[in-house]
Amino acid sequence: NYFDFVSEDGHGLKIYFAYTFLNFPKIIHRIFPFMLFISLFYTIIRYEKNDELNIFWINGISKIKFINYIILFSIFLMFLQIFIGSYLSPSSQLKARNLIKNSNIDFFTNLINDGKFINAVKGLTIFIDQKNSENFTNIFIDDSTKNITRLIYAQNGILASDGKEKKFILFNGEVINIDKNKLNIFEFDQIDFNLENFGSNSIIQPKIQEISSLSLLSCILGKNKSIEIPCQTDSLYETKQELLKRYFKPLYIPLITMLCSLLIISGKYNPNFKKISIYIFLTVLLAIFISEASLRYSATSITTMILFLLIPIFIFCTTYIFTYLKFKNA
Q1: Quick one: pLDDT at residue 227?
Q2: Which of 41, 68, 142, 204 would bridge with 101, disulfide CB 3.0–4.6 Å?
Q3: In this structure, are residues 40 and 257 in contact, taking their beta carbons and an 8 Å threshold?
Q4: Which pTM value belongs to this model?
């Protein structure tokens, strides 16, 4: 849907590709747990079926020791996820928002078609009855970008560009200026309507996921008085939720790794290996679902916040202790 910046809002393809690229950290942060789960689950299943894990067991590496290495690596991935979510993602998203804010609508003229209302610019509506190449007939323009409302009708018009600016050259029409209770009408043979420097309908105000973690934390502590983020009471819930998503949701990464590692403990020679694989797959999916669903309620109170933090830690510790005691010599 980022292509709407071109097809609906009139920005150029350069803006589209740059904005999409700057949003990749957000996309990666969002799907990272699921990516880790699918890749780790598939790899273990494949290596187990091909007896490739037996190389470790033959060389005296126990299954618990091997799992410990995987868990240590998952802890590194957890901190990487925290870095992406707390710094890289909001920083790149803010740059993308500023890119839209500071860009012109250089693709706007390509949106102009006959029989279509063009609303890509905030406060400006253009309607063309007929279009023939660069020539237009029956042009209606509603310009409310300034303090007054200006209605323009022209029988004919053409688009012109001198390399620096794009403009409508309108012929044979009239202009109606409406300023409060005053009405001013005049006719013209030719006027130029400049299409440059109009503000786009694209949202340019930073969203909460684009604000730095330091600003969000200062907002919760009541120390942020800047206009970067509104720190009213009704926005504190979303602020707390965003911080939990950045710093504490990655706690589920070691848990996902631990649950997938149970495939190693079971082994393909277990007669119930297929059923166990299905159970583990569904359990990990449930854990990912809980990490997403619980986030919505985690910031409602201190109790729910503590539960949100303790759930992955408790399940991870319980699973690991059980696995270690039962299979430490495997």
Answers
A1: 46
A2: 204
A3: yes
A4: 0.69
